[in-house]
Design goal:
Radius of gyration: 21 Å
Strand content: under 5%
Shape: globular
Largest sheet: none
Length: about 375
């Protein structure tokens, strides 16, 4: 990393103001967020060199968590130490979390009214395509050989048929890669019969816990296992949120739409789920829990992650998890697609969203607004 020590220059107000502005205006997803940070802190403010920025960005891909959020925390930490990391992280996250909280309140107050429902009906097909495209962009780790392809296929099948178990497929993929590396296939096959029993106890603890503990544990677990970016939240969080009775599959899809249509990280969908579970205090608890691991990982970038990137074992583990992540997100896209009704509006919007978003003709947030407007227009015509 850069030789400059954290906290050597700048002010806390500079960190707060610039990241708060970014949090308010950072539409367009993590790629857009990273581009905005590079322009602001490398080109305009010269906080660090382009090479240091690139190394930090590469490091965030080696650990769980939303990459753009971790970059925001890391940049604040570099600038003003531990307090700077907290400030930059909260300034980047809080505007989006507040917006999602307000929209969640409005959704559960008026979400069943015809006009709001028409808007959400239009957005849902676009969200399905966004998730599918996210999977497509994360396909590379899964096409590097037979084993990664098998891990991706297993994660896909489990996500579609037994979604609550996808967490253990992701972890199991990494463990499997390490076992193959250390012991070879022969010893691994001998140990396989005992593996399916491992997750049972954890699932029962999570699902039988009181509301506050369940909200905290489920979102903390999700935040700690976000290998591959924010969209991995979907197969990790949706099964538990639905199993707990907090939201339905359709409502979770609407929550993704709300998280995607606001600035900042899509992981703020957790705010929607928390609000559904327990109102405003649940929204706050879910938001804190899902982002807490990102603060830990991001503030460790300058020390731990340089060593982690040089570790063959860590690389093997994370590569295997990344392959499974691709399968899980692809499976989540299929599940969400099957939730859509087969009608003219959804068919047209799925095809149009695929063309527009794949070619990048407009930012994702602009297309979501257009899709929602199409839903309103369609609803006005058919009724």
């Amino acid at each position: 990393m850069n030789a400059e020590a954290p906290g050597a220059r700048g002010s806390f107000f500079e960190v707060l103001s610039t990241f708060f502005r970014l949090g308010v205006l950072a539409f367009g997803g993590p790629v857009a967020h990273i581009a905005m940070m590079e322009d602001e802190y490398v080109r305009r403010r010269n906080w660090l060199s382009s090479e240091s920025f690139s190394r930090a960005l590469a490091a965030t891909n080696l650990v769980p968590g939303p990459n753009s959020t971790e970059m925001a925390i890391h940049l604040g930490h570099r600038r003003k130490g531990f307090a700077g990391g907290l400030i930059s992280g909260f300034a980047f996250i809080v505007p989006a979390a507040i917006m999602v909280g307000v929209l969640s309140w409005a959704y559960f107050e008026w979400g069943t009214t015809p006009r709001v429902e028409d808007f959400l009906i239009g957005i849902r097909p676009a969200i399905v395509v966004l998730v599918a495209l996210a999977a497509w962009r994360l396909r590379r780790p899964a096409v590097r050989g037979p084993m990664p392809m098998a891990l991706a296929a297993a994660a896909f099948v489990v996500t579609v048929l037994a979604a609550p178990w996808v967490l253990f497929v992701l972890l199991g993929a990494g463990v499997l890669a390490l076992l193959v590396r250390w012991a070879g296939w022969t010893k691994l096959l001998a140990a396989l019969p005992a593996m399916p029993m491992a997750p049972h106890g954890f699932q029962m603890v999570a699902w039988n816990a009181p509301d506050a503990l369940a909200i905290a544990l489920i979102h903390l677990k999700t935040g700690a296992l976000l290998f591959g970016g924010g969209y991995v939240m979907i197969p990790l969080l949706q099964p538990d949120a639905v199993a707990q009775g907090w939201v339905t599959d359709s409502q979770f899809l609407d929550g993704i739409a709300i998280g995607q249509s606001t600035p900042g990280p899509i992981v703020t969908t957790a705010t929607f789920v928390g609000y559904a579970a327990a109102g405003w205090w649940g929204a706050a608890l879910a938001t804190v829990a899902i982002f807490a691991p990102a603060f830990v990982f991001a503030m460790s970038l300058g020390t731990v992650l340089d060593r982690l990137s040089d570790s063959p074992n860590a690389t093997a583990f994370l590569d295997a998890v990344a392959a499974a992540v691709f399968g899980a997100i692809a499976g989540a896209a299929l599940v969400l697609l099957l939730e859509l009704e087969l009608d003219a509006l959804n068919v047209v919007l799925v095809i149009a969203s695929g063309v527009v978003l794949l070619r990048g003709w407009v930012p994702s947030y602009a297309w979501l607004a257009a899709a929602g407007a199409a839903g309103l227009a369609y609803g006005a015509v058919v009724t």
